[in-house]
Amino acid sequence: MHIVDLATRPDLAEAALDLGDVGGQFIYQGSSGKIITLERFQRLWARYFLIAVEDEVPIARALSVPLAFPAHDRAELPDHGWDEAIQWAAQDKMDGREPNALCALEVVIDPRHRGKGLSAPMLAALKARAAETGLAKLLVSVRPIGKEDEPNALMSEYANRRRPDGLFADRWMRTHERLGAKMIKICPFAVTLSGSLADWHDWTGVKLVDGDNHFPGGIAPVVASVDRDYGVYVEPNVWMEHPM
Which superkingdom, per the lineage (predicted)? Predict the structure, then answer.
């Protein structure tokens, strides 16, 4: 296996995107998710779209965006997590602002290659790319993988669970921790998404009812009103920082 980027291997883009999504396609239906299109990555952030290749076939991808943090008007990582990190990166591009950090947006492994420990080398490659491009840290709005099994659990409680050996109980948080990352804070509104009942059915295949609704890929419930014809999803994440 070797790791390339979109800048050097644009021909692999579609196959890399075909590997799937983090938590389901619905996450990309929000205003922030719609910013990170393939065309924009090709034009703006091609060096930060990494692809693991085996026998010329993509088996994993890692997407990230450079941004300015800390900055005079950004003293803390945002409560809006993944959503606002994408917006910061887009704002910095429009404003010509020099980035000093890299924010990982997703790591996706081919289902046929999961369980082989590929996530760690993809994160290590992001750290290396940050260092190569003069960025001082790697930030991640971590979406704990086991939280899908407990959508009603408070993230503040779930994220702080530890195994007897002292490491995080959640295996995705644990992967980051083993690479040196530290938990900074909970971002309670990391992904916020709203839509009609028909939208949610298209995105998830689930017919929403009044109140809390659970669905595959969600780590929090969708709160719906049938009379008002909307569902609102507010997903918490955990900010973690990888020092260089």
Answer: Bacteria
